[in-house]
Amino acid sequence: MKTQSTYYASNSMFQGSATDVMGTKLEVLIVGLAEKKAYSVWGDITSTVKELDRTFNRFDPQSEVSRLNASEVDIETSDTFKDALNLCETYFILTKNLFDISRGGREDLDFGGFAKGYALRRIAVILKAAHVKDAFVNFGNSSILGIGTHPYGDCWKVGLTNPYTDDVIKEFELKNCSLSTSGNTPGYCGHIINPLTHKADESRVLSTVVAKDPLDAEVLSTVFLIASEAQRKDILLNFPGVVYESFDI
Amino acid sequence: MERRDFIKEFGLGAGALAAVPWLASCVRKPDAAKGDKARLALIGSGSRGQYHIHMLRGIANAELVAICDPYEVNLQAALALCPTAKAYSDYRRVLEDTSIDGVIIATPLGSHARITLDAISAGKHVFCEKAMALTLDECKAVYDAYTHSDKALYYCMQRMYDEKYVKGVQMIRDGLIGDVVGMRCHWFRNADWRREVPSPELERKINWRLYRENSAGLMTELACHQLEVCNWVADRMPVEVAGLGDIVYWKDGREVYDSVSLTYRYSDGRKISYESLISNKFNGMEDQILGKNGTVDLTRGVFYLEEDNLEPGIKRLAKQIVDKTFAAIPTAGPSWRPELRSAYAPHPLIEGQVSVNAGQSMVSADHDGSDLILEAFCNSCITGSKAESVVEEAYCATTLCLLGNQAMDEKRVVSFPSEYKIPYMKF
Questions:
Q1: Which residue in chain B has the smallest CA separation from A161?
Q2: Which of A163, B72, B132, B335 has the fewest CB atoms inside 10 Å of its own CB, making it the most exposed?
Q3: Is B4 exposed, middle or buried (0-12, 13-18, 19+ CB in 10 A)?
Q4: Which residues, other chains included, contact B146 with Cβ-Cβ below 8 Å and sequence gap of 6+?
């Protein structure tokens, strides 16, 4: 993981980025903290995502998930891992079996549609503990968390871009909520598997979910990409307040 | 804008003709009022020769008066396109006709040098298909003959006249992608390169590309164009080449490689990575110029900037707040993943419609510059003026192709031999 950060003293604003983390990049903007405090919060955030990377990164053979996938017998797992597995089980039930990190029991565990949302949830806890009122966190563009508001606005505004054309499709206003996007890109297609049919999704659709909880948003944006309309309506009953929207691209 | 106008606009605009000297002959036109016509003979009237006949129809000051081909089928096919032309089977008889100003040579590579030398001796202006010749000695002989002659000699290296290449190279020179750090060119097809042969004794004549007596294979037929572009961008010549060549798939008695992979190295360490394979076309044809700040794909007329993917949205957001503005940042979308080529956004090199050659035709591509060269040649036939740097560029590219073959045949690193260096070359 490589990090970069800047503190803008006249705006009491901290900006930090980390690359090579969970296969993507993490960007954080925090408003209203003193410099020293901001760097200490950033230190907590980076050590948390590092820990999560060691847990969930299936491309790292030393990560917990890789060791578990490679092992024939049960191995001792960390509290984080146990917590994650419990959450996955809950989502498995709440999404009518469509959210399945074992992809229908046929594959190794894959936390691809979970880890970033889980990380954002942990980051939100760190920010709350530090009494941060306004912050913007972007995990790989697909999971974005807006806490409080932009200093010169009444929310945080983000544009959803079409990965095939770079055009902005829609602007979302985030205030104490999260936006997650799932879909195929020109260079990365067919990575989402329907666990019930075992078919890879190759559609040119973006599925977006806005939710209070970044993990709900993350899980549901992936699930709704492969869910039928009836399944979606059914699942949404379990998630009051969640807003789903899809875009043909 | 008319396609031909780009040269005028380009030349007048930036005084940039110094960097693309061969374009000067495209703007130097004879006095149209005089109504002079270039009286031309076509030597070699196979598919490429017939393509030139079509091109000549669009050039007002061209008059095709003779067609020569020892193969009756091709001769008759060409005469059907231009019935007024006189038919010949021996090119030497064509050269005896003093009323002919210039000849267009579209014969197998093995005869390029001989016909060019004879034509120059006979006082004809010459337009010849690339590559220049089959051997290094032949290249040198043609080059020497040309420099001692007052006749014009053109080689059909289309990329040199193709708007997206001309402007793209200029933009690279102007710093579009920072320091050029390497080049990566390839040409992939999935076809056997064969033509139908009516009787077996014609195999080596019709499928001349497959046999070394007349062909240097993928290097002179395909790589030649691309290596010229690399030198044009680098403004110098590689000092050495290493490579491996094999017949991987088309084991049909051919003698030339159907798979080549070479590295050309410049004196400063920059390299051209070149690959061609004709049993898989997935990668198509690309001429990529790699810069510290971006990449230009001249084939498609687009460039990509490294920073497009590195400039984080969060920095834009921070700048917004510093500037006390509030707006959306276009950052949401499917997962961002590092180091995926297609994640870069293409930017066009030129405005308007871009003709892109998919590289799959054995004969030609539309609007690839062939017509501009032919027109410039016709102008030279009338005015008698030579084209700047065309022969030199063809010489540089062809010698590199032949040295590449030598490196592959001998399985060793071949340095550019001093006896074939010409003053035009910078190393």
A1: B333
A2: B72
A3: middle
A4: B120, B153, B391
**What residues have CB less than 8 Å from B77, skipping those under 6 apart?**
B45, B50
Q: How far apart are CA B169 and CA B162, in angstroms?
A: 11
| CA–CA distance, B188 with B282 (Å, rounded to integer) | 7
The answer to whether the Cβ–Cβ distance between A158 and B343 falls below 8 Å is no
- What SS3 state is found at B292? coil
- Is the Cβ of A196 closer than 8 Å to some Cβ of chain B? no
The average confidence (pLDDT) of chain A is 88
Tell me the residue ranges of DSSP E strands in B89-137: 102-105, 125-128
Answer for the pair B105, B44: CB distance below 8 angstroms, yes or no.
yes
- CA–CA separation, B143 vs B117, rounded Å? 9
Q: Say if CB B102 and CB B127 are below 8 A apart.
A: yes
| Closest chain B residue to the Cα of A171, Cα to Cα | B328
Place of tokens 């340095």: B415
pLDDT tens track for B155-193: 999 999 888 999 899 999 989 999 999 999 999 999 999
Give the A:B interface size as CB pairs under 8 Å.
130
CA atoms within a 13 Å half-sphere pointing along the CA-CB vector of B209: 15
Residue B35 φ then ψ, to 5°: 70, 20
- Range name among A112-116, B166-170, B297-301, B388-392 with the lowest pLDDT average: A112-116
Q: Using only the alpha carbons of chain A, give its radius of gyration.
A: 18
pTM: 0.67
Q: What whole-number distance in Å separates Cα of residue A147 and Cα of residue A137?
A: 8
Name the strand (E) or helix (H) holding B319: helix B313-322
**Alpha-carbon distance B32 to A115, whole Å?**
73
CB within 8 Å of chain B, chain A residues 118-147: 136, 138, 140-142, 144
First to last CA, chain A: 32
**CB contact A152 to B (< 8 Å):** yes
Residue B366: both structure tokens together: 């539309």
Residue with token string 């790989």:
A140
Per-state percent for chain A, helix, strand, coil, to nearest 5: 35, 30, 35
The residues that bridge with B180 in the sheet, in sequence order, are B291
